[in-house]
Design a protein that fits this description.
The chain is an alpha+beta fold. 18% of the residues lie in helices and 42% in strands. The strands form 2 sheets. The chain has a 6-stranded mixed sheet with strand order 2-5-4-3-1-6. Strands 7-8 form a two-stranded antiparallel ribbon. Strand 4 (64-78) and strand 5 form a beta hairpin. It is globular.
Length: 145
């Protein structure tokens, strides 16, 4: 069983990330994790934010995996906030229903998830699998394409 990390984020923020309108995710906890992870849209959206800025919750999907991104670093914003810096963001063609969890969680790479990863990340290869965790990396020679 191969697994990859995922992070559940309340809508509309995962959509903003996948549209490349947002390149960092703010969290209350820092992480040492670096690498690719699945972007999961939480079951419950950020209703307060959506109402304040006039977004209709019906325009966003929830409770599913929407894409993949690479966490390349983190910064301390305040005593209680850390920014996860994101790069190499790719949106799946179709959302995949999946129950999320708080913080980073592990997802088994099922055939539908692998199919979506192959479609949006054709230039990746799997490297060392350690303790049933996987890491995806873009090969340097193909990164600029």
């Amino acid at each position: 069983m191969i697994k990859i990390k995922a992070l559940s984020i309340k809508q509309p923020f995962p959509t903003f990330i996948l549209l490349k309108l947002k390149d960092r995710e703010l969290r209350t906890k820092n992480t040492n994790f670096r690498g690719f992870f699945l972007i999961h849209a939480a079951k419950v959206p950020d209703v307060k934010f959506m109402k304040e800025y006039g977004f209709s919750k019906e325009r966003f999907v929830n409770g599913c995996i929407l894409g993949v991104a690479e966490l390349i670093g983190s910064e301390k914003y305040s005593e209680e906030r850390f920014g996860y810096n994101l790069d190499n963001v790719f949106r799946f063609e179709e959302p995949i229903d999946y129950k999320g969890k708080l913080g980073f969680f592990e997802v088994t790479l099922t055939d539908p998830i692998m199919a979506q990863l192959r479609k949006c990340l054709p230039l990746v290869h799997w490297i060392k699998i350690d303790d049933l965790k996987s890491q995806i990396t873009i090969t340097e020679e193909n990164k600029s394409e």
